[in-house]
Amino acid sequence: MKLLVRDKFPEMKVKTTKGDINLPNDYKGKWFVFFSHPADFTPVCTTEFVAFQKRMEMFKKINTELIGLSVDTVEEHFAWIKWIKGNIGVDIEFPIIDDSDKKISKELGMIREDEEDSTTARSVVIVDFKATVRTILEYPKELGRNMDEILRIVKGLQVASGKHLFPPANWPNNEIMGDKVLLPAGTKFTEEEAKEQGICKLSDWFMYKNLD
Length: 212
Ligand code: BEZ
Known about the structure:
Layout: E1 12-16, E2 19-23, E3 31-36, H1 43-54, H2 56-61, E4 64-70, H3 74-88, E5 96-98, H4 103-108, E6 122-127, E7 133-139, H5 147-163, E8 181-182, H6 191-196, E9 200-203, E10 206-209
Parallel strand pairs: 3-4, 4-5
Antiparallel strand pairs: 1-2, 3-6, 6-7, 8-10, 9-10
């Protein structure tokens, strides 16, 4: 069964380059980005791993861990990360899951089951501190992901959850309101109340304000 947004992330014990991890319990109170890649020792995936590693501290600053997965074995993951360190000078520090039996990728719907020798998609599952799936993305094998967008999604969801304010398109560089954020539809303020609270009200259903 395919995982859907708002599902609880299923409980599972996974074998990784950092030892066994119990998901989602070992990440209690934290957000995590769970992503799959098609294969170790492939060019686009290598650029993705370097890009994720370069932003790992930025993810940690927003209480978010990274965890990768492919249908390669832990031994293949170790050989690939050694190659990345030796040739690109980047140490991959986040855990990578061995899903060589394809059990997890099948359970989470990250792999086609109707093709022989299929491999994992470029899937991204963003899970919040209560183990609820908040975003699912899938990219084709031909295109590397944008890690700044993944960071933006986590930051935007944390604003939406923590303050109940909704980041607009292209936030924090929105065409109408810059880095301001929207009040959810259904929020009620008179013109006077909106003015007092620094809310810009274009309509009863379109209001925005600074993120303080
Ligand atoms: C790549 O990462 O470059 C790649 C992986 C699998 C299929 C095609 C490309």
